[in-house]
Amino acid sequence: MKIRAWFDSGSPWIWLTAGMVSLSMIMVFGLLMLIAVRGLGHFWPPQVVAFEYEQGPGQVVSVLGSPVRSETVPGLTLREAGYVIPENVELARRNLIKQGNRDLTGRDFIWYPEDLTGQWTTPLEAMILERREWGDFYGFLRQVKEEGLVVGEGFEVREELLRRVERANELFTTINRIERYEIGDLNRSIERIRLTERRLELDRDLEDQVREQQLTDLQEQRAELDRQYEVINTRRLDLAAQMRRDSLVAEAMDGRLVEIPLANVVHAFWPNSMSLTEKMGHYVRTIWNFLSGFPREANTEGGIFPAIFGTVLMVMLMSIVVTPLGVLAAIYLREYARQGPLVRLVRISVNNLAGVPSIVFGVFGLAFFVYFIGGNLDRWLYPESLPAPTFGTPGLLWSSLTLALLTLPVVIVSTEEGLARIPSTIRHGSLALGATKAETLWRTVIPLATPAMMTGLILAVARAAGEVAPLMLVGVVKLAPNLPVDGYFPYLHLERKFMHLGFHIYDVGFQSPNVEASRPLVYATALTLVLIIIVLNLTAITIRNYLREKYRSEGD
Length: 556
Hints:
Elements: H1 2-9, H2 11-40, E1 49-56, E2 59-74, H3 75-80, E3 91-98, H4 102-105, E4 109-113, E5 126-131, E6 137-146, E7 149-153, H5 158-202, H6 208-243, E8 246-251, E9 257-261, E10 265-269, H7 276-292, E11 295-296, E12 301-302, H8 305-336, H9 341-353, H10 358-381, H11 396-420, H12 424-432, H13 437-466, H14 471-474, H15 501-510, H16 515-555
Antiparallel strand pairs: 1-2, 2-3, 3-4, 5-6, 5-10, 6-7, 6-8, 8-9, 11-12
Helix pairs in contact: 2-16, 5-6, 8-11, 8-13, 10-11, 11-13, 12-13, 13-16, 15-16
């Protein structure tokens, strides 16, 4: 009877609910901790080890690299893979070593069985070079050269090497700025001249004499731009020659000497000889470069700033579109539409729309927004650019509108629920004081329903920021040459393609030619995406709580 009374009291269901909530919280925080540890641990300077490896009978090679992870596998698996493992070994442990030097060995991650490796050592002179091409280089510094002449030798010239690497990076930044801005300005001016010439050719109402005069003026402008390009390009080539001046000679673990231009070196460091303070400085600098840099090497190296920028900008544009549309639709359905079978059918359709797979929205956005609306805009407004599309191609605008449609049901339902929770006595009191229905709605009802509208926006942002499938059809790309925002009119270029963190995770995780190199970047990028979603949601939650307290105090 006591057990039956305990069940009838409802206590078991309270404890069951609390247990499920606790389990869910543990799983969520556990996942976040896993992503954080795997992602953030990648940026800590790795330990470099050296050991002898028995490649075959009488064949011993020297290996230098950083341990990545270890695992235990059946000995038969290793023997079938070609490793010389004794027949009596049933289980063998192997270590994955990142040894870099992809240009020398063809691959930079290799498994080494422990039974075939000698004792590990940690040479203080071991150097890691982060390169713009061919990944990292592991070896020992032997010489620093300037225009082919040796200016220093051995481990003692580290400071000289770092100074010249910094100089090469400054020249690289200057050259990139010249190519992106100065030469980019000239290219845009030349493209405007080409489009103007095309527009003159299409204008049949223009007199031939006027057309010829304008074409002549355009040709003179083009010639002046060509002269400016020659001057800028000459300066760019001079800087490139200066950047190629310095080089270093490094010795790989197999004894080969490799000369590496410093123009190809991003950073050089010696992790085994770094102090804790130096490692922490390297850690912070590497994370900052990851967040603020541009990707390279098929997105397996470099930074993710374009993807962060594109994700945040797309979510903001989506919010600007979906909020007024969803709020107005909900207000009409709840306050103005005559309640009947048609309105009920609309509500059912809105609820069902929330369950449509996101890829269907992507197909709709591609067909309606890109091909239909964008294609017609090109024919009406940009005929001189055809057949090259301007808006008739996937871009930022169409991605934002597609995700606005995707999240529209969430905003409508949330706003309707907020309007329904407002007591009718408030409406009646406002009307009794002489206010019209519109005044009652806009000055009394909507302010009280604002927290519910913000709740819908929070849910919309959370879903839109993580969507990938529809974006693959309507605007996101693997690598965007330019950001959607720059200093050129109209400053916000809605027609441009953009990068997205969700698609970046998919591309790096499943399309990368170097799986092991991209694995930690997947975790780091996923952590960045989660943190951005949390920041966006916390911002909206803060605004919602502020509005709730504001209108509650005014009501009191």
